[in-house]
Design brief:
By secondary structure, the chain is an alpha/beta fold. The chain has helices at 3-16, 38-43, 59-66, 93-104, 138-154, 173-176, 178-191, 232-239, 250-255, 265-279, 295-303, and strands at residues 26-28, 35-37, 73-74, 110-117, 120-127, 158-164, 196-204, 218-221, 261-262.
């Protein structure tokens, strides 16, 4: 037995061998190609530190930044029929759903939650573009109806983050029926005189744009988000003309009156707080934690009689 070859050499190699580096530590920006360290990117809310490109955020990542302390409670969404049309292309529709559920960890393409934003109670819904392109199917329709009903029941505003490639073709006409269905859900909020704020993220297209995504009391978009019904390539091929620079991007739509604001992701929470409290008739939110009042002062305030109607 050659102990140098069989023991000493492997031991030395193990000490000086190159450590394996996980593949998910770096992310390449799709806009400028800069390699971004995962912690730095996460701390910057998935916004490129080099070119300011806004990358996709999952609903849970959005809610972690939106709600106070990242604490929220999920709102239950009724489950639709699994495969109403028995659709099959290269794969069976149930197989595609299972693959999307496994990769995202979510049951459907939208997450609904309730919680507080700067101590302002709200209901929020967010689409997940990673789940089959965030396509609008029966589950998304059920989620928006559930969010609207919950907001009306609790007398809270609804904030919706859209990100979708349009209606889900695997559900055919049933997916298109979600357009009037979600419009009715938005009308429920209007009748209850509750704010409905939409944040359009990249991309928001197709039947989603033609329904609930453009019906907000306030329309906000993230920078350079693609917002359209038919995409620019389809329009160019149809009219056979070159489209203007930045056509159907958030800044272009803002200039042409289709949006109220284009807001950077890092300022989005503060803006949503200000707008929500303004629409609810509440005073501006106080930044930071205030110390609790002294007990005698608190007792005096609670013992004051309620003000009666003006004479």
């Amino acid at each position: 037995m050659n102990w140098i070859s069989n023991y000493v050499r492997p031991k030395i190699n193990s000490l000086f061998s190159r450590r394996e580096v996980p593949e998910n530590l770096w992310t390449k920006c799709p806009e400028c190609g800069t390699m971004l360290f995962h912690r730095e990117l996460k701390d910057n809310l998935n916004v490129c530190t080099s070119c300011d490109h806004h990358m996709a955020l999952s609903p849970r990542e959005r809610f972690a930044d939106l709600f106070d302390g990242g604490i929220f409670t999920e709102v239950a969404v009724p489950e639709p029929l699994a495969d109403p049309l028995h659709f099959r292309d290269q794969k069976r529709y149930p197989d595609r759903l299972k693959a999307a559920q496994k990769s995202t960890g979510e049951y459907g393409a939208m997450l609904v939650a309730e919680g507080e934003m700067a101590r302002t109670p709200i209901v929020a819904a967010a689409q997940d573009f990673a789940f089959m392109g965030g396509s609008m199917g029966m589950f998304v329709g059920n989620a928006i109806v559930a969010a609207a009903e919950r907001a009306v029941a609790l007398r809270r505003p609804l904030i919706l983050f859209s990100a979708a490639g349009g209606a889900r073709m695997q559900e055919g006409i049933l997916s298109l029926m979600q357009m009037p269905r979600t419009t009715v859900a938005v009308e429920m909020l209007r009748e209850a005189r509750l704010p409905y704020i939409v944040v359009l993220t990249h991309p928001t297209t197709g039947g989603v744009t033609a329904s609930y995504a453009m019906l907000g009391d306030i329309q906000i978009a993230e920078p350079n988000a693609l917002i359209c019904f038919a995409g620019p390539r389809v329009i160019e091929q149809t009219i056979r003309e070159k489209l203007p620079e930045g056509f159907q991007r958030a800044e272009y739509l803002l200039d042409h009156g289709m949006l109220d604001r284009v807001t950077h992701r890092k300022q989005l929470r503060d803006e949503l707080i200000a707008i929500t409290r303004l629409l609810l008739g509440l005073p501006p939110a106080v930044k930071g934690e205030l110390p609790p009042p002294d007990q005698p002062i608190l007792t005096a305030i609670q013992s004051q009689p309620a003000a009666g109607p003006a004479q």
